[in-house]
Amino acid sequence: MSVIPTLNGVFAKIKGGVFHVKQPTRPQESKPLSVLHDLGRTLSKHSDYIMANQPSAMQHDVTAALAMLKNINWHDGEVQKHRPELNDAQIVEIRLLDIIANCLCTGVPGDVVATTFANIGTKPSLVVAKNRPPTPNEREIANKILEAALSKEKDFLLSTVIKYTGRNILNRIKKLRECIFKGETENVLNKFKVLEEDLEDYEPLDLTNEFPPGLVAEFPNVYGIKKGDISGTHAKTALKDAFIDIQKAVKKLGLQKEFDSNANNVEVLNKLDGTCTILVNSTFMKTRPDSDEFNQRFIRRLKKVTRNIGGLNEITRRYSKQPDRVHNLVWVNDLPGYVDINYPSVKLANTFQEALSIAKVPLPELAKGNWDHIPRFKGFRTKWPGASANAREIEPKLHCEVNVLASLAHLIKDEHGNPKKPDTLVIGCSKQSCLSCNLWFKEFNSKHGTKSTTSGSHGKPFPAWGLPGDDGANKLVFEEINKKLTAAVQVTLGPPMATAHNRSPSDDQASTDSDSGGTHAGNWGSTRRGGSG
C-alpha cells in the first residue's frame, strides 16, 4: 500500500488499484500535483470546485430565496430555453444515462442518481453520484444491476432491478394509477373517463397512420391478422384494449408498497410497458390539444413507466457491445482528492414577511403595510414553515448532477479554464434537474465556454440546494435567483394579472426528448400474449 498527497491535501491510500480517500478534519491548502501520472490524465484542482467549506452567508441567502420562491408556488416557465443543443449521438447517450440512473435509484425519498460516461485514466467508465454518499449496500446493488446488464438471459436485468430497486418502478406506476383513477371516489370529474369517451368517437384511418412502423410490424404476431391488412378497425381495437389493460395493471400494481416475490412480476411489467407503448405512440394521444393539462400529465407518466421498464432493453443492447463500461463503475466520491462538502444548516426566518424583509426584496405598492387585504397572501403565510423550528432548519446537499460536472470539469476544460475537446459532458439523472442546478449548468457553461447538460429541468426551486465550489458560477446563480424572486414577488403580491411563469403543473418533472420512451416495440407483443394484470 502506498500513500500519496492528492490535490487538496487529502491522503489517498492506494490498495489494489482502488483509491480510498481519507477525509481531512479541516480544510487544507492545495498541494501541487507531483504524482498520479499512472492515471493517464492531469487532474484539475478538485478543491476549486468541491470545497470543504462554503461561504455560509451566500448559502443562507440562496436557501432563503429558494424557500420563498417555493412558498409562492413559483417555477421557471422558460427553463428549457437556452439549453445546449445536442447532436443525435448525444441525445441517444443522455437517454441511456437517464435510464441507468433510474435503475440505480432506490425510490426512497431524497435518493437521486446522476450518471455519465467518462475516461477515468485510460478506461472508459460509468461515473455515478448520489445526492449523498452511497452506502456499502447501495454500492453492492449498483454492481449487481450493471453486471445483470451483461446477461444474455431474457429479462434478467428487469428481474434484478425489481429485486433491488423495484420501488422506483412502483413509484412511477402509482403516479400513473393516481392519474387514471383520480376522481372516482370523489365528487369530481374523472378525466380519464372523458378520454375513454373521446376514444369511442375516434375513428383511426388505418394502422400505418395510427402507429409507427415498429408497432405495425407486430400486429400480425399479436392479433393474428393477415399481413397487409391495415384497416382502422385493428387500430381502434388495439387502443381500446390498451385502455382496458392499463387500468387493470395499475390497479393491481399501484397498491403495492414493495414488489412481492411473485415471479409473474416480470410478465406483468412487460405487459404494462407494451400497453403504455401503444398509447404513447398513438396518433389518438399525440393529437390531443396541448392545452389539455390532464392529457399532457398522462403522457408524461406513460413515458416514465416505459423508460423504467422497456428502457432497460437499451442498456442491455448497449452493454452487449461495450461491456467495458459496466466493469469500470466509478463513484464520484472515490475520485482522487474528493472531499464531501460540510454544509452548515440554514435557519429560515419565522415568517414569510420576515424572510422577505431580511432579503430586502422590493415589494409592490399593494403589499406595503398590512398584507391581510391580499387574498393570496393568507395561503403563502400559512404555508411558510413557521410553526415548527425543525421545519425552518434546512440542511443543504450537493445535487448529484452538479457533483458530477464539478468533479469531472477537468475533462472538458484546461488548466486556464478554457474549453477543450470534447467540451460537453452529457449527464443522466433519475429526476429532472431543479431550477438551481439548471442555472448552475448555464453559468458554468457560459464561464468556461462548455456545453454540458442534463436531459431537462422542471424549473422548480428546491431550498435544500447546496452551493458547489465554483465561486464564479455560484455568484451568478445567486444573482439570477434573486432576480427571479424579485420578479415573482411583484407579480404574486401585486395586482392580479397573468403570471409570467405560467406553466402546466408537473407531477414531479416534465418530460424531454431524453424522456421520450415508448418508441421501442420490444415489450409490445406481451400486451396480447397473456400475462396477468
Tell me what the structure shows.
The structure is a single chain. The protein folds into 2 domains: 2-146 and 326-492, no CATH class; 151-322 and 512-527, no CATH class. Helix content is 43%, strand content 7%. The protein contains 19 helices and 9 strands. It has helices at 56-71, 88-104, 136-148, 156-181, 191-200, 207-210, 213-216, 219-223, 232-253, 265-280, 283-286, 293-308, 312-321, 324-327, 352-358, 375-383, 400-407, 435-448, 471-492, and strands at residues 2-5, 11-15, 18-21, 113-120, 123-130, 329-331, 346-347, 393-394, 428-429. It has a 4-stranded mixed beta sheet. It starts with a strand and ends in a 41-residue tail after the last helix. Mean pLDDT is 78; it is low at 1-54, 498-522 and 526-533. It holds the Pfam family OTT_1508_deam. Residues 501-517 have a biased composition (Polar residues).
- List how many beta strands DSSP finds: 9
- Name the structural class: alpha+beta
Mean pLDDT: 78
Low-pLDDT sequence parts = 1-54, 498-522, 526-533
Distance linking N and C termini: 56 Å
Count of domain modules: 2
Instruction: Please estimate the helix content.
Output: 40-55%
Strand order of the largest sheet: 6-5-4-9
The major sheet is characterized as: 4 strands, mixed
Question: DSSP helix count?
Answer: 19
What series of H and E elements makes up the topology? EEEHHEEHHHHHHHHHHHHEEHHEHEHH
Radius of gyration: 25 Å
Shape: globular
Q: How large is the share of residues in beta strands?
A: 5-15%
